[in-house]
Amino acid sequence: DQSKKARPLPRRDRRADRDLCLFQIGAEMIVVCGDSISAGQYLPAGKAWPDLLGYENRSVSNDTTRLMLERFPQDVQASGADICIIQVGHNDANRWQTDGGITRVLRLAFTANLWEMVHRCHTFKIRPVFCTITPVRRLSQYQDDLRDYNASLRMVAERANIALIDVERAFMDAPDNLMLDDGLHLSEAGQEFYAAHVKVAFS
Asked: Within 10 A of 7 (CB to CB), how many other CB atoms are there?
């Protein structure tokens, strides 16, 4: 039912709400708005973790929070979803020489974009859920930047009192075969691992 809206949670301790909200919402439709990690770049169709879980997958490779917000009205607000899982950050923190070596989306703007996504979700009675950024095997500068952007994700999730699926922590203790040779994108095993971690959060 595309018109079905999220059921409000009873008021309780803010930290308890954030820990339990995934278990209490009972949603029928979940939309995923992500980048190449959720789009399953370099893998056969249907192998991305949202597809494995049967979620509506509106992920686009190379997306930043800025680009994601441009498509938010049609991909999220008009989706009729109960929950929107937001997976983003790798491209925001990426540094391009054509940009003079600064990150594609400055951390301050990244944080503001996350807040806008939360606001837009709440306006349309959709429950936002953040995923942290998966680790990479690339330059130490990029790894440091990702840690900073993950800190922003955690901060917004905490202050906005929304759920956070900490895939970064899960992947840090995971086998090496979960990543492709490029040191960033997930293998089929990595997508299955990601899907399993998300499924546990909703079980």
From this structure: 12
Helix (H) or strand (E) holding 131: strand 127-131
Q: How much is the average pLDDT of 35-39?
A: 98
Nearest to 58 by CA among 149, 40, 42: 40
**Backbone φ and ψ of 63, nearest 5°:** -75, 145
Which helix H or strand E contains 192, and what residues bound it?
Answer: helix 188-201
Tokens of 151: 């800190």
pLDDT at position 187 is 97
Query: Of 111-125, 134-148, 171-185, which one has max mean pLDDT?
Result: 111-125
Angle between helical axes of 107-123 and 65-72 (0-180°, round to 10):
20
pLDDT above 80 for 10:
no
Q: What gap in Å lies between CA 165 and CA 83, rounded to an integer?
A: 13
By CB atoms closer than 10 A (0-12, 13-18, 19+), residue 105 is buried
- Beta carbons within 10 angstroms of residue 81's beta carbon: 29
The end-to-end CA distance of the chain, in Å, is 21
Whether 21 shows a pLDDT value over 90: the answer reads no
